[in-house]
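Thread: quick sanity check before group meeting

JM: Hey all, I'm pulling together slides for Thursday and realized we never actually wrote out the predicted structure for the chain we discussed last week. Dropping the sequence here so it's in one place. If anyone has concerns about the input, flag it before I start.
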Amino acid sequence: MIDKRTGKVYGIPLGETEDSVTPYESGAECFADGAELDDNERLAFYPNSRLVISRNCEGEKVNETTGKQLITYYVNIWDEKTKTFKLKKVQQSKLVKVDYSQF
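JM (edit): ok, ran it. Output follows.
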């Protein structure tokens, strides 16, 4: 993120896992009810908002045709005073089943 008044660059929270891997580095696809979620929705923000919402998916393959996936959303708000993002809410969705035979 770039401050248009000063030109200073700030890092954006991308929903890193405990291993500090971002959803972009992991290459993990996100699925919900067997349908792939849009990659463009991994990071959501609007120009006139201080919120940045990121999504990360962690998957576990159970067998050749079935897997489980936990989709986690991170809601961060920009604090103009400290010039940092503050994590306000993490919402973890239910586990979803993935049929690997479709892909």
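AS: nice. Strands lie at 31-32, 35-36, 43-45, 51-61, 66-79, 84-92, 96-99. The longest helix spans residues 23-26.
JM: adding both to the slides.
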